[in-house]
Amino acid sequence: MERLGLEPVPQSARAARRYVRSALTGLGATEAATTAAELLVSEVVTNAVLHARSAIDVSVATVGDQVEVAVVDGSPAPLLPRSFGVQGTTGRGLRLLASLASSWGVEPRADAPGKRVWFRLPRLLAEGAGVPGGEELPAW
Predict the structure, then answer these.
(1) Which of 63, 44, 46 has the alpha carbon at shortest distance from 9?
(2) Please, which pLDDT band fits residue 125 given cuts at 50, 70 and 90?
């Protein structure tokens, strides 16, 4: 599995979005699926930059009929939902994960201190990209 290594700097969210877009385009994903994945990886990487302040790895893999995006950081601190005001510019990342992803989770790293935050989305294919068996994949 290919990974993108990132530093804990604000520009990493943009690099993660580009990486995910390229990977999903290569998998034949629809624009809707790609846009959702970009938004979610941006949120998770931004959380890692702000709170973990460690090196970050981003990966994309297929899991059955879904695509999984994972963000690994070096902080064992748990993810905590935050309250946000109407004018607030932060605090919505976990709610977005819960709303847009078909599933998501957090697990401790087995090889080092830190955690792996992952989310899955249906691998919706663009029109003209072959779907195995000619079956349509469910929308989210």
Answers:
(1) 46
(2) low
Contact 95, 81 (CB under 8 A): yes
Q: In this structure, what token pair is assigned to residue 35?
A: 């846009």
Q: How many CB atoms lie within 10 A of CB 139?
A: 9
Residue 44's nearest CA partner among 123, 97, 2, 6 is 97
For each of the domains in the chain, give its residue range(s) and CATH number, in order of start: 3-78+90-127 (3.30.565.10)
| pLDDT tens per residue across span 33-45 | 899 999 999 999 9
Q: What is the pTM of this model?
A: 0.82
The residue length of the chain stands at 140
The residues, any chain, with a CB within 8 Å of residue 138's CB and separated by 6 or more, are 122
Phi/psi zone of residue 68: left (φ > 0), alpha (ψ -120 to 50 degrees), beta? Answer: beta
Q: With 50 as the cut, is the pLDDT of residue 55 above it?
A: yes
4 within 8 A of 57, measured Cβ to Cβ: yes
Q: Are 53 and 36 in contact (CB under 8 A)?
A: no
